[in-house]
Amino acid sequence: MQRFFISREFYVRKRVFKVFPVRTTAYLQILSCKFIIGSKARLSKKQATVPVQPVITKSAKRRQVCQLILDQFEQQYSKELGPLWLSAKVVLLNPQCWQYGVMLNRFTSVADITRILKLQGFTSILPSSVIYTLDPVDTHTPQPDTHPPSILSTNQSLPFQNLPVPIPKHNSEPSSHHNPPPMPSADPGPFPRPSPSPHPPPVPSLQCLIHTSPVRFPSQSHRPGQLKQYYLLNAASLLPVLALEVRDGDRVLDLCSAPGGKALAILQTAHPALLCCNEVDPNRRDWLVKTLESFLPHSLSDTVTVCNLDGRTFGESQPGMYDKVLVDVPCSNDRSWLFSTLSQQGAPRLRERRNLPNLQTALLRSALQAVRPGGVVVYSTCTLSRAENQEVVEAVLSSVPGAELDDLEEELVLPLSDHFTFAPPGHAPSGILVVPHPGKTWGPMFVSRIKRTH
Ligand SMILES: C[S@@+](CC[C@H](N)C(=O)[O-])C[C@H]1O[C@@H](n2cnc3c(N)ncnc32)[C@H](O)[C@@H]1O
User: Fold this and answer.
1) Which of 43, 146, 158, 442 could anchor a disulfide with 48, C-beta 3.0 to 4.6 Å?
2) Which CATH fold topology does 2-167+204-452 show?
3) Residue nearest to atom 10 of ligand 1 (CA)
């Protein structure tokens, strides 16, 4: 088990300093960059007042589709999804139409970036009804000197530390009854303060901005001494985090955590007592640490731990220890498998695919064992495959006593249908399935929420 901080040297990227020798210039240039794909991504006159600099990235290059994988998807998904597959295929085969969400980081000042995104036509994807509210944190007022330093701003080099996960005492009360942990006194950090008002205005803590066109903001480079302001993601990745409903004081396990997008999103929604981020692959674990390092302040180092175990062992080694467990399992990953697979890798990939449901089932079982009675497990994948979604959940529900399916229709499907295309319930009765669609290119994403009743 390890804390998430690693040495500062890990982050030095020469490229950044070469391209932008002066930090403020770099900052302004990064803010004003815009990645434009196709002729659709035009700016209005007002938007164009922000200097725009196109950035050429990998995704702009032509990518090759792996025919073997496509044939397999075609055969399977046309049977499983019917006409929904036809529109999903249009999106999946055309990376130029893919949209990207910009998740803001509440642990640093984001006023400037928010202004620029809004000028460029980005709007919030989350209506207030689904955003968790915290006591107000003013993310719109620049606070250049007030946010706590990340490890990047210290002079020391901190190697990984082997520390046990700080499991708080088991408490069988529902998590909503937990008291938030006390605020650190020496380093007040960015956490919300108790509001003097009995009815503080709702302040969204998880903010994700999207554009209706396939406009891509460049990912933010390393900022010496400062936390990153935003993380780019497929906006459908927020759905498992919203379904998890993390509350202040919860003990949370992110069983398959790298590269860490959902762990970051969890920390935007609440102040858990513990967030244990687990990743079995050592290289991906390092990537996860790097992500956490770049976005989280020092004051969270007692809360966030990283470990490097096989997720299937958690149920036995830490039974009933967590209030909430996210199991974002390894899966077929339809979007990237179609492209990142060289033709000779197609066959082994498809063989590997046959074994995924077994691994996914074991991970979900382990998660249900690791959550306390009354706690919640969210299972998610980024594939349309019924064998990895519906059938895994059904197998676990029918074999684990005390596991009960929870409905997400009212909480997520109804308020978010303007932005996401959800498959009709018949396609995914044990969860919700976001199917990419032209104009709403988010997904694939399957989310299922399971309560442990006893
Ligand atoms: C879909 S990715 C997780 C994405 C991550 N939740 C995020 O939002 O950034 C699945 C991860 O599970 C990891 N994994 C595979 N087998 C595992 C196992 N047995 N235990 C824990 N993690 C595993 C993979 O290496 C991969 O990083």
Assistant:
1) 43
2) Rossmann fold (3.40.50)
3) 330
Written as six digits, the tokens of 155 are: 């002079």
Ligand 1 pocket: which of 278, 281, 352 to mutate (most atoms within 8 A of CB): 281
pTM to 2 decimals?
A: 0.78
Task: Tell me, rounded to whole angstroms, the distance of Cα 421 from its chain centroid.
Answer: 19
252 is written with which tokens? Answer: 């949370």
- Give the model confidence (pLDDT) of 168-207 as tens digits: 333 333 333 333 333 233 333 333 323 333 444 434 489 9
* pLDDT, tens digit (0-9, with 9 covering 90-100), for 261-301: 999 999 999 999 999 999 999 999 999 999 999 999 999 99
- Determine whether the shortest distance from the Cβ of 330 to ligand 1 is under 6 A: yes
CB atoms within 10 A of CB 162: 8
Q: How far apart are CA 126 and CA 241, in angstroms?
A: 13
Any atom of ligand 1 within 6 Å of the Cβ of 311 = yes
User: Distance of CA 190 to CAs 38, 113, 203, 220, 390, Å?
Assistant: 39, 18, 14, 21, 40
Would you kindly state where each structural domain of the chain is located, as residue ranges? Answer: 2-167+204-452
DSSP string for residues in 135-203: S----SS--TTTSPP-GGGSSS-----B----PPPP--S-GGGPPPPPPPSSS--SPPPPPSSSSPPPE
Alpha carbons 267 and 334: distance in angstroms, whole number: 27
Q: Are the C-beta atoms of residues 2 and 288 closer than 8 Å to each other? A: no
Question: Is 379 buried (19+), middle (13-18) or exposed (0-12) by CB count in 10 A?
Answer: buried
